[in-house]
Amino acid sequence: MPVINFKYSDLCSLIGQDVPQDVLVERIPMIGADMHDTESGSEDMSVEFFPDRPDLYSVEGLARGMRAFLDIQPGLKSYDVGKSDIEVTVDPSVKSARPYFLCGAVMGVDIDDEMLRSMMELQEKLHVTIGRKRSKLAIGIHDLDKVEPPFTYRLADPHSVRFVPLAKTEEMDMEEILSKHEKGVGYAHLLAGMDRYPVIQDRQGRVLSFPPIINGALTTVTVGRRNLFVDVTGNDLKAVKGALDIVCTALAERGGRIMAVTMHDGGDTFLSPDLSTRSMDISASECDRFLGISIGADGACECLRRMGMDAVADGDTVHVRYSPVRLDIMHKVDMFEEVATGYGFENFGGPYRLDQTAGGSEPITAFSDGIRDVAIGMGYTEVCTLTLSSHKEEFELSRLPEMDNVRVLNPITEDHTCLRSYLMPSLIRILKHNKHRDLPQKIFEIGYVIREGKTVPHLCVMATASRTPFAEIKGVAEGILREMRCDHEIAPCGYETFIEGRGASIVKDGKEIGFFGEMAPAVVVGYEITHPIMFLEMDLGPIIGERKDTLF
Known about the structure:
There is one protein chain. The protein is an alpha+beta fold. It has 4 domains: 3-69, Phenylalanyl-tRNA Synthetase, Chain B, domain 1; 81-272, Phenylalanyl-trna Synthetase, Chain B, domain 3 (Phenylalanyl-tRNA Synthetase, Chain B, domain 3, 3-Layer(bba) Sandwich); 278-345, 2-Layer Sandwich (Phenylalanyl-tRNA Synthetase, Chain B, domain 1); 363-546, Bira Bifunctional Protein, Domain 2 (BirA Bifunctional Protein, domain 2, 2-Layer Sandwich), CATH 3.30.930.10. Helices cover 29% and strands 30% of the residues. It is built from 16 helices and 27 strands. α1 packs across α3 (59-69), α4 runs antiparallel to α7 and α9 crosses α10 (332-343). The longest helix has 17 residues, at 237-253. The protein starts with a strand and ends in a 6-residue tail after the last helix.
């Protein structure tokens, strides 16, 4: 999860008043965060935020949230958006590459070292999280005074555009950047298969950005009072707009003036950024039932204002207005969560009841624990394998009786095409991946297989060694059955899985519940194993079903 680092004094300055550090350490986690490496009296603070709140991925966003949460300035924080004379054209060619492009300007931002670091961290955290490592969106922040509008976003031939990329001093064309620049090498896969690449240029053709790879060195932002131009390109319009709104409002928290630019995108002309608030209506009574509290519509409004929203009660209905930077609000349940957070998670619950009941293990759990003790006592190590398997390993290689099983409709790999009907193929896969280990190898698993659409508990015990005599696996099987106090019979087994005459069935009440023996060499070789194998597999369901007392 994203971790932001900042100075205590910087946070208080942005909040607008000095808040005791111990209060911040106590209250910040209550909005969905975890404090990191913060010592009392230290200027350095570090907070890890939950992934659903990208608007808090900067000290500026955190200050905005804490002003409301601490009742310093509750309610919706609005930002005035002026209109600039900057115009931006989106060429139709980009629709086949990164089709969405939004931008804005923020004027008169006083940038110091702390603010510059915060701005860079916010940009990278948005790239990694909602940007999915730049595949979904990429952000550029530029010194507006170093370029001349209007700007154009278009596709260009990789060799026709040359510029000095960020952190370099020599010009490169876009193809050279992808092969030589560390950022180009790291993100070149995002442009794989394209014969032309996206580029943002000013009136004179100077390059602001080569998205989603690298910005131009020309527009590098430095310390001082600056006018900034923010661009966001990507493949998801909601994410692109959300990232632009988050960055612009964070810069505005530093005293910048947000100015809209005129976007010409095909036949559409509109202003960006658009910071119009969003709205949602919720039922106060439904919210109370959902949360298990009784605060009514007025109480819900108070809680929501503490979460940086405006809320008005109209009978049972609560009309809510919230900021466009709140990308996590999608459903009424999200609004109920906001009410809960504003109410205070520490206020939920009550004293412990005296009529609590003690929990107990399910029969299968208690039974499995007993089998584990027996198998471990025999020198076997427990493993846990995937329920997914393949038809080839389950039936063709194993030569076990084939049955209808649950198939995966669109399997990602050939190894995971169905749900397993036996445990044996899963365990032999463990041995296959450990051929380089010393012998003997003795493993077991208690797990579920799928039979006739139902989960059925099975036990499988397996060993590989230089010699795996039938008498040894027979002794293991009879020892486990004796400890389970299971009445049974041993009968010959004709499965091709076993060497002829060295396989046996476990029969209970006239029905086979398991089998054991020495694996046939053809089966061993089919699984790419180089040493003999013996194994036991049995269905535990009939044994558990008949026992009502403690099994072990």
